[in-house]
């Protein structure tokens, strides 16, 4: 049986396995800051959505 997600953001970690920080400590794979990466598992749903939005914004600027 397939385990269902508790909610839409419960495991939506943006990591794509291409982990490398640029000179501003932003991952070139997922566009999270080092702090966001380290704190991901302790973030609330709202905070995760905010991080995902920030990642999209950073990605669009590249």
Which structural traits does this protein have?
DUF1289; disordered N terminus; 62 residues; mainly alpha; DUF1289 domain-containing protein
| Secondary structure category | mainly alpha
Order of helices and strands: HH
Give start-end ranges of low-pLDDT stretches: 1-6
Shape: globular
Protein name: DUF1289 domain-containing protein
InterPro entries: DUF1289
Organism: Vibrio paucivorans
Give a written overview of the molecule.
By secondary structure, this protein is an all-alpha fold. Helices cover 37% and strands 0% of the residues. The chain contains 2 helices and no strands. It has helices at residues 34-39, 45-61. The termini are far apart.
Question: What is this entry, summarized?
Answer:
By secondary structure, the chain is mostly helical. Helices cover 37% and strands 0% of the residues.
Topology:
Layout: H1 34-39, H2 45-61
